[in-house]
Please model this.
Amino acid sequence: MPLNRNQIAWRIAQEIEDGSYVNLGIGMPELVANYIPENREIIFHSENGILGMGPQPEKSEEDGDLINAGKKPVTLLTGGSYFNHTDSFAMVRGGHIDLCVLGAFQISKNGDLANWATLDNSKPPGVGGAMDLAVGAKNIFVMTEHCTKDGTPKIMEECSYPLTGQGVVNTIFTDLAVIDITSEGLKVREKINEISFMELQNKTGAPLIESDIKELSPPVL
Amino acid sequence: MPLNRNQIAWRIAQEIEDGSYVNLGIGMPELVANYIPENREIIFHSENGILGMGPQPEKSEEDGDLINAGKKPVTLLTGGSYFNHTDSFAMVRGGHIDLCVLGAFQISKNGDLANWATLDNSKPPGVGGAMDLAVGAKNIFVMTEHCTKDGTPKIMEECSYPLTGQGVVNTIFTDLAVIDITSEGLKVREKINEISFMELQNKTGAPLIESDIKELSPPVL
Amino acid sequence: MRDKVVQVLEIKMIDKRVNTFEEALQGIADSSTVLLGGFGQAGSPVELIEALIDQGATNLTVVSNNAGEGEFGLAALMKAGRIRKVICSYPRSSGSFIFEELYESGKIELEIVPQGTLSERMRAAGAGIGGFFTPTSAGTLLSQDKEVRQIDGKDYVFEKPLKADVALIKAHTADRWGNLTYNKSARNFGPAMAMAADLTIAQVQEITNLGEIDPEHVVTPGIFVNRVLEVKLEN
Amino acid sequence: MRDKVVQVLEIKMIDKRVNTFEEALQGIADSSTVLLGGFGQAGSPVELIEALIDQGATNLTVVSNNAGEGEFGLAALMKAGRIRKVICSYPRSSGSFIFEELYESGKIELEIVPQGTLSERMRAAGAGIGGFFTPTSAGTLLSQDKEVRQIDGKDYVFEKPLKADVALIKAHTADRWGNLTYNKSARNFGPAMAMAADLTIAQVQEITNLGEIDPEHVVTPGIFVNRVLEVKLEN
Model:
């Protein structure tokens, strides 16, 4: 079975090292916070000026002045801190964030990421902090469905949508596989058992490398 | 009588507008703080991270962590604040300081300032914050003796010493005169009565402009 | 003799407090560039922005992370037809229908700047930096017409300072010298914007006596602030 | 079963506290670039610097506002012959005789950087900026070999980020996440240096429990700090 979003989030969470500073992109990547193994202390960064961001509060505890980058109410962990936007992006651009998990429209085989604009010019585009995060974080994980709803591969030779960053992605986590972007090409590290390598290749717009592929098997979530 | 240092300081102090943010250079300019008219509230900036710097404390109240740019113990006025060096020089470079009073080795007729290095290369030079202040403050006043100890003019056609900043000085306050640097040249605004315009010109290495000169007559200090 | 006594009593004080929206916004001219604090609603000086409608300035260039939502604050100013151009990082949200209508009908200009670059450009303006090289947006549409320089093997884009005539920001506490503190993540763009404008106006929850803000805890020193107005809001 | 219980109890914690100078300075290599906090003695991590003599690293490039005084701290490290080059704004003071001797006998290299540029270059390194244009030093000896660009009619000098291997700084309070506060004007270069080094080590007057530093009052967030060591000093 292809992974659901919670399961992709779970898989990414297992990969996050203890003590890391992590920024989770708006939307699907936010789910990753729910699956951090209990014995790891992770410090979440929010680009609007928070380190040590905690989970969503009870409805009655919500504070309009304490929100995440997606503008949803959050909390602050003991040890957390507030700072201004300039300092926050100094952390990002300066390489102090260990990991950022971002969503994607498209990813190219050399790690280009497109996740901020489509080719539709009638709607105003919006980049937010995506370009800063893409170029600044030490590691970029992409969290995405393997294909679009109509079955078009999101991983391709070259992105056709406007880029967010060039050669920035380290690893792609999809509902079907975990794929590292290496100097040799797209290395499949894990895939679900229900799909063959050839089937995975057919759903991918760039050549995959097969070597020592492990099973991608998250718990039921 | 030529002014003594306290009298030059007094003269400069009269010129400082109420509510100004002022940085006083290390050494002689520090005296200016002693003569601010009592009905003016001036906020002194120190480039090591202080706004609202107050006078020297009693010996018993000295705190090694509260010093001015000359590394002498100071106090903080009610309403003052501490910040880091980067923010402090953002204030300076960004044009937020209304006035800086600096000492000088030489000043050229177009407002070049030399106050950080001589032509003696055997000693290590040191610039400190002088170049940042010279270029950043909205107004630069120079506080200096009119001539060096051996009688050489300090105001000249062009500085022979290495420059601190180009065309930065607005007004020169000496023991003999107050001279504005204008697009037309060096305009004598005030001079002491004991010296004639020609005598002042003879002690100055660049042409002075004579027009409506007032008497420079500070109190006995 | 009497005159002299009066003079001594009338010691002037630096006092950046104003009592009305009118005083707060006095002198903002048509065609100004205006920085508006806030990230979404957190830190947005909604009341100051709405008072700007009455103040009347028009043909404004507005710098704000977002392009407004609902029909209040920035969206209300837009709806009133006062804004010529918006410079922001993320104009669209679920409630940004007023901006979207204006944009789609070509009635408002839009410049998209990456969020970190937006903040850094304002900080540069406030700090007297003439421009800087950032890796953000290298190789993307947003650096198309910009100078790109390779430094130590990496591409950087040249960005210029973003200076403004006016900043309207929201802080938590102020004193008469204009020192400010903020509340939680509502701090966001306030400090950079305060530095970058010729005239910085802050609405605050509370004005306290001078000295009540610990000098170690001042976030925006008063040197960056021109006027403070207390606007008490329910939490 | 027993194993599982033990595992649950062994929740790892981020803990940047170290207990000895040896632990604090572990891994500093010869030929490193080392940032040393402080403006004069205020904020100077004297004890960490002196411990670096025992640690043994040599051929160092040191960045510091001043070049030491007396025979303690930086002056002691210099006297021990560990420093190849000093980058500073103001090397000379009444007590800087050790530096002056080394300089005059050609045993130490000196690079003079204006104070604001020094701090801004470190901040740029920490903030991922590839370089910036500053008006400071335009038209002077200190910009002789540098790129100069006219921007809006004013001359600006191109300055590159100043990145370092190590920063030794002094702060007032720390917690196990490495959050720092400072004391009065001893804050000075600490925040910029903490950002600019790969390994930032802070000596502090006091280590408190996590949460005792108000999140609004953290000056250097722990993300910029690798190790904290409590060094209690008499005031």
Notes: DSSP finds four helices and 13 strands in chain A. The first strand of chain A starts at residue 21 and ends at 24. The mean pLDDT of chain A is 96. Chain A has one domain: 5-54+65-215.
